[in-house]
Amino acid sequence: MGHTGLRVLRGGYTGAIPSVPGRHWGAETPRFVPQNNPPYNMGAFRFELAFSPHHPLEPPRARLLTSIYHPGVAKDGHVCQPLTSLHCWQATTRAVHVLQDLLLLLDHPDRERVMRLELARELGEQPETFWRRAEEHTRSHAEPRPEPPGS
User: Fold this and answer.
1) 138: helix, coil or strand?
2) 62 three-class SS
3) Considering Cα of 3, then 58, then 32, then 114, what sign does the dihedral take?
4) Residue 19 pLDDT more than 60?
5) Residue 57, Cβ neighbours under 10 Å: how many?
6) pTM score > 0.90 for this model?
7) Which residues fall within 8 angstroms of residue 148, CB to CB, at 6 or more apart?
């Protein structure tokens, strides 16, 4: 990879993000986004949080690396996250807030934060079908959830 100035946090947020441009940052634990609500709590989802060389003046970009059946996540993994849009971004927003917002979106699909209109429509018009398909997709694509620390 060439020197682009892009910093990437893959896995989970575990603390302060080093401010060295042109590097990929990987967190050891957790390596994924564990969900609390069904059907997404049946697995874990890998993600990437990419920071431009102009961060914190420009927002980071969140992307799921694991396929998910969710109206707020595009097929390529990009997330509908107004918090990180250019017109809403504030330089004082911390990475942990971006991750908390991502968890909230994933745990509670919102028909207003949409990347896949057909899934938002299905959620509104045929919720039983949506939840069944989301469960099947999670069972097929998500990674096993880790054991809680100390277990």
Assistant:
1) helix
2) strand
3) negative
4) no
5) 9
6) no
7) none
